[in-house]
């Protein structure tokens, strides 16, 4: 059974930093593409960052240079390091696993609020 558990969300001031974590179990973590999406109220869910098994990463234009996706294989965890956050980064952040040859899986989401 695939399980994705996010953590690390919360309230952060504009210009601050936050690190989200997603612990994965039940899948071949090293072979899966892992991604972070977010959904703000009244908006569609959008890709924030994606990390492929070949260590290639891609980012939404809105977060390039501010957010970094990374993996820790021993802990089977993917991280999203968020820096220089803005109020428009406020959203529920979701972890997504895209295992090869399998359906995609989503975490339950973690709220990030950027406000002074």
Unreliable stretches (pLDDT < 50, length at least 5) are none
In N-to-C order, the SSE pattern is EEEEEEEEEEE
Give a short account of the largest sheet. 7 strands, mixed
- Quaternary structure type: single chain
Helix count, per DSSP? 0
Average predicted confidence as pLDDT:
95
Q: Classify the beta-strand content into a percent band.
A: over 45%
How many strands?
A: 11
Q: Radius of gyration, Cα only, in angstroms?
A: 13 Å
Distance separating the two termini: 40 Å
Class by helix and strand content? mainly beta
Shape: globular
**Residues in helix, %:** under 10%
Would you write up a description of this structure?
With 116 residues, the chain is an all-beta fold. Helices cover 0% and strands 51% of the residues. It is built from no helices and eleven strands. The protein has strands at residues 3-7, 10-12, 18-25, 33-39, 46-51, 57-59, 67-72, 77-82, 91-98, 105-106, 110-114. Strands 2, 4, 5, 6, 9, 10 and 11 form a seven-stranded mixed β-sheet that branches. Strands 1-3-8-7 form a four-stranded antiparallel β-sheet, with no helix packed on it. Strand 7 (67-72) and strand 8 form a beta hairpin. The protein starts with a strand and ends with a strand. The model has no long low-confidence stretch (mean pLDDT 95).
Report a brief summary of the structure.
Helix content is 0%, strand content 51%.
Task: Provide keyphrases for this structure.
116 residues, four-stranded antiparallel sheet, seven-stranded mixed sheet, 11 strands, 51% strand, mainly beta
């Amino acid at each position: 059974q695939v399980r994705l558990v996010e953590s690390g969300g919360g309230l952060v001031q504009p210009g601050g930093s936050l690190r989200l974590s997603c612990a994965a179990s039940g899948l071949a973590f090293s072979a899966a593409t892992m991604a972070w999406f977010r959904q703000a109220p009244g908006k569609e869910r959008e890709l924030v960052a994606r990390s492929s098994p070949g260590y290639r990463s891609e980012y939404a234009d809105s977060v390039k240079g501010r957010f970094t996706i990374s993996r820790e294989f021993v802990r089977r965890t993917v991280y999203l390091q968020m820096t220089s956050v803005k109020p428009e980064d406020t959203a529920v952040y979701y972890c997504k696993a895209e295992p090869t040859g399998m359906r995609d899986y989503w975490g339950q989401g973690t709220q990030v609020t950027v406000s002074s």
